Write the structure tokens for this entry.
Amino acid sequence: MSAGEVRVLVVEDDPVAADAHALYVGRVPGFTAVGVAHSLAEATRTLERTRVDLLLLDLTLPDGHGLRFARGLRAAGHPVDVIVVTSARDLAVVRESVSLGVVQYVLKPFAFPTLRERLLRYAEFRQTAGEAAGQDDVDRAMAALRAPRPAELPKGLSAPTLDKVAALLRAATEGLTAAGAAEAAGISRITARRYLEHLVDTGRADRTPRYGQVGRPELHYRWLAAATGSVSKV
């Protein structure tokens, strides 16, 4: 671990999501996951014995609310920065997060590219130093934390259909085939497969071959529990 790396503590009670988020952090240059805490008590103990620069903080923990925890850190003068990672879509919670100095607010479920983009923007902001020559310098520093425009979908794919296919896949506990997705979404099998393959390519689903009695195996698609809003905006 180099001295310049950002040390990240993942605070998440879901073990699968926690491990996935820590893995994501480790894949971003300049960032290192120094631990995983499944409760606020665990996070407190880690912060007491380990230098941490950034928290990936879930809001609903078994022993309290993440924002209450963040407020306590601020009151104690702890310098750690916070990226909220949550399913909470209440804009009042978003406003409270901003008031506490939360640097990013990421909705679950999301794929690796989303977190990578937020971490790289945070790193850019973190590297700003010195005195601003004027308002333009201040604006540029603050702009580093702003979310990017949503990435464009591959040609031929539409956001509403992608969201529909993704919702069907999330709801299918046993997964779906392209034929099953096509029937449920009211689209052709070939079209359904394109959307399913896009979800695989962006890390939100996986596929496995299923062998039947005869013939070629059929691909079975399954939503990844740790894929962490509207999937068309990732």
Q: What stands out?
A: The first strand starts at residue 6 and ends at 11.
